[in-house]
Amino acid sequence: MAKIVIKSPREIELLRAAGRVVCQVLDELSTMIEPGVTTVALEERAAAMIAEAGGTPLFKGVRHPQARFPFPACICSSVNEEVVHGIPSDQPLCEGDVVSVDCGVRLKGYCGDSARTFAVGQVTDETRKLLDVTREALAIAIREIRPGLHWSDVASQIQKWIEDHGFGVVREFVGHGIGREMHEEPKIPNYYDRRQRTGDFKLEPGMTLAIEPMVTAGDPTVVLGDESGWPVCTKDGLYAAHFEHSVAVTPTGAEVLTNGR
Ligand code: MG
Ligand code: MG
Fold this sequence. Notes:
By secondary structure, the chain is α+β, with helices and mostly antiparallel strands. It has helices at residues 9-32, 39-52, 125-144, 151-164; strands spanning 56-57, 75-79, 82-84, 98-107, 110-119, 168-169, 175-177, 184-188, 208-211, 214-216, 222-224, 232-234, 240-242, 245-249, 254-256. The mean pLDDT is 97.
């Protein structure tokens, strides 16, 4: 496994500054989301805010082996059965939808990456529960992190919480180290599987990690949503949710870098 880069306190402050921009964008978009709004409108607002802050969007221009063209936007906006990598569109959001917004920014050479899933207007109780359980899965991970634990100890807790509520944990997409690059070592799964043991790692102060549980209302199997190769959707068509924070491991636990502080 490639080396996990340990960051200095100064670098962690730079990651926090990038994370602050991401948080401001997500806070702003959260006030715009209602029935009738398009995800292109969210994209335009995000692009303007990132430029105003002197940052650059991380996702725009990213290539993926499965995709036909580079990712064309600053945010991923994934609606309903879309799990991740949704492309902003001019299709208005509807009452009862969910939209996951993922935003990544580089500022002064360091990256921030965070995602939240929003309810559009009134949603069903089951949908509300999906969002609450996914948000709490991320909170559990952040509470559990401390130096000396293995990631698999944390991942087992995330997985148990989600599966105990009858939901699915996506396997094909995982969190990642974050620093000068959006995707650094290690890979950070939201489940524990003995076969993955070789990918496990011990948490150490100065590690900076993007933790991002992706949760499905039904079966966790995912498929590509269309021929572009970008949107990743649940195979059974049921809703999905996605919450992400970039965090730093501290001597006693974890501090969140994308909460606006
Ligand atoms: Mg992200
Ligand atoms: Mg990420």
